[in-house]
Request: fold
Amino acid sequence: MPSIRLTPTIKALVIAIFATFVIQQTADQFFGANLLGWLALIPSAVVIDHRIWQLFTYAFLHGDVMHLFLNLMMLVFIGTELETAWGRARFLRYYFFCSLSAGALYLILQLFVWKGNGLNTPMVGASGAIYGLLMAYGLIFGERVMLFMMLFPMKAKHFVWILAGIEFMTTVFSARGGLASAAHLGGMIAGFGYLWVRASISVAKKRSKTGKVDLFGFKSKKKSKAKSHLKLVIDNEREDARVDDGAGHDPKTWH
Reply:
């Protein structure tokens, strides 16, 4: 992986996530506060108490120092390159779309599939968004070499699909671990869908300009020498583009 140049948005996210972790852990453990109950994603609190903001705030909390460290490390390594390629606005839209989608999937599964005590089980962690970033990284920088399990080098495009397979198997066959893995998988699926739709719209617009199809999908009689191919990855953006710009709820599920 290339050398890291911490971009402004990644720096702000790292500071915000770290600060929220310190404040929540300190307040809850030493001052008897219940920030976990207010900020973590708790299905019963969202549905009964209408704490809709938890779908957003849960990603700023983490279960312990190692959980925090691993997510921030991935955010720095993966997020920096994606923000450099996309710019601040697009990166933030994608990041929070993946995070919200992962949270929504967890909420739906707890309400309609697992039910029971899971309705009061908080979920914390930015991994839904991080896994979405990993999906984008594997599609955009597919030839880059990453270390699987921190030991085995492989191309990013292979790394991502192996990771998705592991999360799918864990979701299906692991009773408790499947909760976190479902959120991870939700972030990856949301990221893939986001990139596919965006690329499809971009290709449709370019074809309409060249006379191949109009905005409604009808073919034109005009012929174009240039062939247009649908690429999931970037909408013709190159990787060297510049930046444009509560208590009582344990055990918690963190991812």
Q: What stands out?
A: The first strand starts at residue 123 and ends at 124.
